[in-house]
Amino acid sequence: MFIRILLALMLSAGIAQAQTQKDAPAPKAAAQPVVSAQEALYLVRSTLLTLNDANKSGNYTVLRDLAAPGFQAANTPADLARTFTDLRERKFDLFGVLLIVPKFHAPPRMENGMLRLRGAFPTAPLEIDFDLLFEKAGGTWRLFGIAVTTPPAKAAPKP
Question: What's the pTM?
Answer without folding.
Answer: 0.77
